[in-house]
Write a structure and sequence with these properties.
Layout: E1 3-6, E2 25-26, H1 41-49, E3 58-60, E4 63-66, E5 70-72, H2 74-77, E6 94-95, E7 105-111, H3 117-131, E8 137-141, E9 149-154, E10 162-164, E11 166-167, E12 180-184, H4 187-190, H5 196-210, H6 222-225, E13 240-241, H7 270-279
Parallel strand pairs: 7-8, 7-9, 9-12
Antiparallel strand pairs: 1-2, 1-10, 3-4, 4-5, 6-13, 11-12
Pfam families: Peptidase_M57
GO molecular function: metallopeptidase activity
Protein name: Protease
């Protein structure tokens, strides 16, 4: 889930400090919306055993949200990990242990009919960006039948000065991409007239998770989110450095997998392309 703060520059409304004017969006700190329901310690222990940080866990329907935009189901929490040890270092592109297999293959994507035209066009934009790289996965949007990935909507306004943009998950152990992306339809997320480049960039990011990418600034979310240094986790789920990508964060700017959105158009940088071509 990628988030932005709403900074109250000159846009205060009747003394309300959470401002929803699109022109006043400013990315600041990665925090999830406030939540009143405590997460049981047993659940936190399961999340930690899978390799995710338990510093900021929230419920999302029947799932749990970790690291800002990763959904874990109750079934996910029952799984055990066996695979490469997590590498924690100041490096850029990371992948999970599970990747999409059965290559080459076509990944079908369907946009729920309840989503507006900007989400359909944003999906097409994200698809075109991936397909332009000539990878061993080809993306195709379909309008009927069962898709590999379904993009649907939820409506959630700002909370505590932050807004949720979207969420997804990681590939399954059977080699399939994560099958769901949820995008926020609240006007505070993308405005009443969503910009296709902005929507498409968030969908592109969430697809990256579906294909096995962790956040570029996994080891230090402050790079894109501001605030103090924060590592997303350090256990067996996999944050494996992708060969050919830098071992420092000097080229992390504008990566499509940064944890926090810049509020606009963000596509692949040169190291993202190296990582995608290495994996697919």
């Amino acid at each position: 889930m990628r988030k932005q703060t709403f900074t109250a520059l000159f846009c205060l409304i009747a003394g309300i400090s959470v401002v929803t004017f699109y022109s006043c969006q400013k990315e600041k700190v990665a925090k999830t919306p406030e939540q009143t329901t405590a997460i049981p310690q047993a659940v936190l222990n399961q999340i930690a055993s899978l390799g995710f940080s338990t510093a900021d866990v929230h419920t999302f329907g029947d799932d749990y949200l970790v690291e800002g935009d990763i959904r874990l189901s109750k079934e996910d929490l029952k799984k055990s990990f066996s695979g490469p040890v997590l590498r924690v270092a100041d490096a850029e592109q990371y992948r999970t242990t599970n990747l999409v297999t059965g290559l080459p293959r076509t990944i079908t994507i369907k946009v729920a009919s309840s989503l507006g035209a900007a989400f359909v066009s944003g999906t097409d934009l994200a698809i075109s960006r991936y397909n332009a790289l000539g990878l061993s996965i080809t993306l195709q949007r379909i309008t009927s039948g069962t898709a590999n990935i379904t993009i649907s909507g939820f409506n959630q306004g700002p909370s505590g000065g932050f807004i949720t943009l979207g969420s997804s998950g990681f590939p399954t152990s059977s080699g399939n991409p994560y099958n769901s992306i949820q995008m926020n339809t609240n006007a505070a997320a993308y405005g009443s007239n969503p910009d296709v480049n902005y929507v498409g960039s968030v969908i592109q990011h969430e697809l990256g998770h579906c294909f096995g990418f962790r956040h570029t600034d996994y080891y230090n979310r402050a790079i894109s989110c501001g605030g103090s240094t924060s590592n997303e986790g350090s256990a067996g789920v996999g944050a494996i450095l992708i060969p050919g990508t830098p071992s420092t964060a000097t080229n992390a700017a504008n990566s499509f997998m940064l944890a926090c959105s810049n509020g606009g158009n963000r596509t692949f940088n040169s190291n993202d392309i190296v990582a995608l071509n290495y994996l697919y």
